[in-house]
């Protein structure tokens, strides 16, 4: 009788959980330690404390970014970063795509710079330095004023000029009707 | 003709042939027999191809500004069948290829889950496994089609070589997610790589539960480092850039990240000026690999050969046109015809030595086919960088040379933007 109960419970467990008990559970604290460069979501989740100022960003940019992206973000040898704050048109050449005319979310700047830049030395910028760079880049692209501080609260609120161009792919919309762009 | 006369003629013909053979110099040399007189190489622990095949390599554009972020092309016209050999599978990475020690490898699943979990490679291999053949295609494949006038030097490799096909073995991602227990409200996964870019993308949970693989083997052996060793995502039918390599973490969440590689790149500029996000599914493609650009053929019999695939499902037919799309003939598909995988198509053909243009177009089970170049640019912008799948034309010149047969689009010149950096043209 007891044996039958055990078999019943085991089958119930498989039906409900269907687990293999492989892998090791970890605490949220350990998961956070493993999360070296957290994902920044468009609503600002993942942004650290700290604040960026344009004049600080200018110095860091000159030291760590200008050799690849040009003295003023004009590009070459690698991607152009600075453009007028007007969305691209069908006549804009792809080499002209930059933050001011193509990037649609301000949070992407923080996420990507912290995650992958400087090319060849990623992970060397402090959270504060990343904020400074984001502030300088937004300013250079004519999106914020020189005295606007950039932090957890303000960055997700910044409206990017190219956001109005962005639409969901129709095939994706058909397959995932619930999906909307942030 | 009476029977006697027929045999007399046959006899005369045979005699003539014999006389001819005596006068002929042998169509081989002594070296043809050389290997029959000496011992061959001994056993070897890891086989390599013949030294005579060393010219069959991936194409790396000489114009790249760095080889640490960019793409190279699989040499499609030098391959047979449908499986891309591991050493020739196209590459695309954003911050170089990491060398990962499998003993130190870990995969963490956390976020909106009941139990955050860490897996070793050994753990992953203990799960029930699945082996499937799938193509992977860079969203920037076809990037040379964004060049006007068309490049006369184009080869099949440079036309469509940012796609490859392999047999992948791994654990269904759905099993790992069930193990961690996805919380209600979760919609998205943010997979992350352990490369120097810590590359991330956003993947809807529904697709993960359907058919995404956490793969550790490619064509029977461990993944190659360029393909994500030891573990990568394989997302059937979707653009290559979402199939995160060197997978170290999956964040389960309720919002997409809008990461750099799904906003400032891998978004599509349309002819009407809109920019489309999450253009995940790869539209149908086909490419004639023989005869193709920069090859040379002789009059007589040829088997036209090519590859076709679609991210929407199975290929149902491939058609070939010899008159720039006025009439079409159906090619033979080599079985098995699998979903989201390369299919080899073939058509017997006798070339009469006259100039001709060959077109091919693939059809998939959802009724999708490939547009002409003109049709493509009515929908997609000339300044787009991705998802070019217009028909590739090859022109056979009277001397047997094969060149790009694509038609120029008006007089306005534009260049390939090299969306994923496979080809970059300065100036």
Q: Keywords for this structure?
A:
heterodimer; A: 182 residues; mainly alpha; Cytochrome Bc1 Complex, Chain D, domain 2; two-stranded antiparallel ribbon; 7 helices; globular; B: 427 residues; alpha+beta; Sulfite Oxidase, Chain A, domain 2; Immunoglobulin-like; 5-stranded mixed sheet; 5-stranded antiparallel sheet; 6 helices
Describe it.
- The complex is a heterodimer of chains A (182) and B (427).
- With 182 residues, chain A is mainly alpha-helical.
- Chain A has one domain: Cytochrome Bc1 Complex, Chain D, domain 2, CATH 1.10.760.
- Helices cover 37% and strands 5% of the residues of chain A.
- Chain A has 7 helices and 4 strands.
- By secondary structure, chain B is an alpha+beta fold.
- Chain B folds into 2 domains: 70-275, Oxidoreductase, molybdopterin-binding domain (Sulfite Oxidase, Chain A, domain 2, Alpha-Beta Complex), CATH 3.90.420.10; 285-404, Immunoglobulin-like (Sandwich), CATH 2.60.40.
- Helices cover 12% and strands 27% of the residues of chain B.
- Chain B is built from 6 helices and 23 strands.
- Chain B has helices at 3-23, 121-126, 156-160, 173-180, 205-210, 373-379, and strands at 70-72, 91-93, 107-111, 117-119, 130-137, 163-172, 188-193, 203-204, 213-218, 221-222, 232-234, 247-253, 268-269, 275-277, 285-290, 300-309, 315-321, 329-330, 332-333, 343-351, 356-364, 393-396, 402-404.
- Chains A and B meet through strand 1, helix 2, helix 5, strand 4 and helix 7 of A and strand 3, strand 4, helix 4, strand 12 and strand 13 of B.
């Amino acid at each position: 009788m007891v044996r039958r109960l055990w078999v019943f419970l085991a089958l119930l467990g498989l039906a409900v959980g269907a687990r293999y008990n492989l892998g090791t559970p970890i605490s949220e604290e350990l998961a956070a330690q493993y999360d070296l460069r957290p994902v920044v979501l468009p609503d600002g989740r993942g942004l650290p404390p700290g604040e960026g100022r344009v004049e600080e960003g200018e110095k860091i940019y000159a030291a760590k970014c200008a050799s690849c992206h040009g003295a003023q973000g004009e590009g070459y040898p690698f991607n152009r970063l600075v453009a007028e704050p007007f969305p691209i048109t069908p006549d804009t050449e792809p080499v002209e795509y930059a933050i001011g005319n193509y990037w649609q979310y301000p949070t992407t700047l923080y996420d990507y710079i912290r995650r992958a830049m400087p090319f060849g030395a990623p992970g060397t910028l402090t959270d504060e330095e990343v904020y400074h760079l984001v502030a300088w880049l937004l300013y250079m692209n004519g999106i914020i004023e020189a005295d606007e501080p950039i932090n957890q609260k303000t960055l997700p609120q910044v409206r990017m000029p190219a956001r109005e161009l962005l639409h969901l792919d129709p095939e994706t919309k058909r397959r995932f009707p619930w999906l909307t762009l942030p | 003709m009476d029977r006697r006369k027929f045999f007399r003629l046959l006899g005369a013909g045979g005699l003539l042939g014999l006389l001819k053979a005596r006068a002929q110099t042998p169509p081989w040399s002594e070296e043809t027999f050389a290997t029959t007189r000496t011992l061959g190489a001994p056993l070897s622990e890891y086989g390599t191809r013949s030294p005579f095949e060393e010219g069959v390599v991936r194409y790396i554009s000489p114009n790249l500004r760095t080889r640490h972020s960019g793409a190279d092309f699989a040499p499609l016209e030098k391959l047979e069948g449908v499986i891309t050999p591991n050493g020739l599978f196209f590459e695309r990475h954003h911050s170089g290829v990491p060398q990962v020690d499998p003993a130190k490898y870990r995969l963490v699943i956390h976020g909106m889950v009941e139990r955050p979990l860490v897996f070793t490679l050994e753990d992953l291999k203990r799960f029930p496994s699945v082996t499937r053949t799938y193509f992977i295609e860079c969203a920037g494949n076809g990037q040379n089609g964004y060049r006007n006038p068309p490049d006369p030097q184009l080869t099949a490799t440079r036309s469509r070589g940012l796609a490859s096909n392999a047999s992948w073995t791994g654990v269904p991602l759905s099993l790992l997610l069930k193990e961690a227990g996805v919380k209600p409200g979760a919609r998205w996964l943010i997979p992350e790589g352990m490369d120097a870019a810590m590359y991330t993308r956003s993947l809807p949970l529904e697709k993960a539960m359907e058919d995404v693989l956490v793969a550790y083997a490619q064509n029977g052996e461990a993944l190659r480092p360029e393909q994500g060793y030891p573990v990568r995502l394989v997302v059937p039918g979707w653009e290559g850039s979402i199939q995160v390599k060197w997978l170290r973490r999956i964040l389960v969440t309720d919002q997409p990240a809008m990461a750099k590689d799904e906003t400032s790149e891998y978004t599509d500029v349309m002819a009407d000026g809109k920019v489309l996000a999450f253009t995940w599914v790869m539209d149908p493609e086909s490419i004639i690999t023989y005869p193709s650009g920069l090859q040379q053929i002789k009059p007589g019999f040829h088997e036209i050969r090519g590859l076709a695939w679609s991210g929407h499902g199975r290929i149902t037919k491939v058609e070939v046109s010899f008159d720039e799309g006025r009439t079409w003939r159906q090619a033979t598909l080599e079985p098995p015809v699998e979903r989201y995988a390369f299919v080899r198509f073939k058509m017997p053909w006798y070339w009469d030595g006259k100039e001709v243009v060959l077109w091919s177009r693939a059809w998939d089970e959802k009724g999708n086919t490939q547009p002409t170049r003109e049709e493509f640019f009515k929908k997609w912008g000339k300044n787009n960088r991705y998802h070019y799948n217009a028909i590739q034309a090859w022109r056979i010149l009277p001397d047997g040379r094969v060149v790009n047969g694509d038609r120029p689009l008006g007089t306005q010149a534009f260049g390939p933007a090299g969306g994923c950096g496979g080809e970059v043209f300065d100036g």
